[in-house]
Write a structure and sequence with these properties.
single chain; 99 residues; alpha+beta; 2 helices
Amino acid sequence: MRMVTAVLLVLAVGWYVYSGEDSEHFPYSLSALDSWVYDQDSKRDVLAGRVPTSYLARADGLASCRDLAINAAREHNFRRWGYVCCTVTSSTDCATKVR
């Protein structure tokens, strides 16, 4: 009985850690990044696109998210703009905002 309880405890703790996020607000269950561009002049938000990625490939995903934002800002002729990358998991399309 102790062995079963110990295994269940380890599985529960492992699931909790995996379903959380790191100190930079990246969810461990990251599956994609949504690139959002905001234009300060027109006060418009534009979805630039989605980049499939994972927690382990988050650096490459961020670079692709940035590239999508740059292209969208150029396409929409934004002059004063910024962007965020929303982290996508199986349960939400914007778990956290990162850059």
